[in-house]
Structure of Acetaldehyde dehydrogenase (Acetylating):
Amino acid sequence: MVDKDLLSIQEVRALVRAARKAQPEFAQMSQERVDAVIKAVSEATAAQAETLGTMAAEETGFGKPQDKKTKNLLASEKVYACIRDMKTVGILSTNNETKVVEVAVPVGVIAGIVPSTNPTSTTIYKSLISLKSGNAIVFTPHPSARKCIAKTVEIIQGALRSCNVSPDLVSCITIPTIEGTNELMKICDLILATGGPGMVKAAYSSGTPALGVGAGNTPAFIERTADIESAVTKIMSSKTFDNGTICASEQSIVTESCIAAKVRATLEAQGAYFLQGEKLEKVKNVMERGNGSMNPAIVGRDAQTIARIAGIDVPQGTRLLVSDEKGVGHKYPFSKEKLTALLGFYVVEDWHEACELCTALLHNCGAGHTLAIHSNNEEIIREFGLKKPVSRIMVNTPATQGAVGLSTGLFPSFTLGCGAVGGSATSDNVTPMNLINIRRVAYDLNSQCCCSGNGHGADSHAAPASSCCSGSGHGTSAPAASAGNIDINAVTELIVAELKKVL
């Protein structure tokens, strides 16, 4: 009898061993060479965006093929556009005033945990930011998305071969088990965790540095000065995008009583169906499992499919199922995260009450993630920006598209940090810079040898050891006199050349 756990562990060890062999050579390549590699990966994955999107939807049963194609293009083309000119190799900066030189140091081998909700796009995105930062990455796929993730890695490896670099820089477990994933998290250098709360918690408990995400429970506040038609349209487009599988998607609408009727009517006109009575109870019965977690049978499904699963009839053209809600907490399933075509609806008297309610919703397993506000009152927007326990506030934009950087200027990302309040090590939309350690070369502030000078001849490239030690005037007056002409950039290049030998 074959022990899959042992096989998975052995495979992980082999993949990490190969990655550790390939990564140091890649880390020594020039910025130009690294950029050529990520360009090739971007182009190869973008060319297969539709195929991979279809594969992901068919294998997982989640979302829509066309929207998954859009996410794949975001991960390949827009991520590349944002990182193309980013400096990630060698000297990142030189400050002549503070006399500090910053040098990029890749972390090494990254463990890439990939969810079933966004499998191919997350794989593309994590591969690009890992390679851009000089790292290798080994993916552990969600078992229900194993085939589409493996195909994505295969395409990326083909691009790496075309650039004459090792395909071992990006690899994937073919026998995914919990034990194999645990082994990967133990022996890698950094974990990049995207997935359910249990997996993210395991990453932070592994003993290896980790960057993870938190749960999203995004409230969308429609304030009385908002353009209601526009706000509803954006919320509908966001919540139905890939059937709500992105954790930044709106989970509840909060609006003021003076405009509630109009908001409700606009929602209904755009395909929202308000559940009541027996229909509401039947939907509630299929929303969660016995332990209160989301029922995977309805995750990433459209409204019509959820209605069929619940055994109810809804009008043709229904896009969202909505419930009027009064409370917040475990007894109120519509107050929780719902990665599907379900939405809670709350009515408050004014923005002060909305502020309190949004905070309560966020603390109901969504703290640190995302909040959306639709308003033309800058003072209220500012108050929300100053006080809400989130890492990103979306203003007059779809929360899904805004948070991942599709409709906003945020970095395009499928790893959305939630900060300390959300149990994350970062509040960033994770970028290549999160995957780089910074080595700082700091000169004595009282030494003249680090000041930018005009010396560009042979003397300016003298070994820094004798020059830098001479600036304090302790019996070395002659070297100190000449040190003032040393060019800090030339000296730094010499230092970095020595540092590279031990990287």
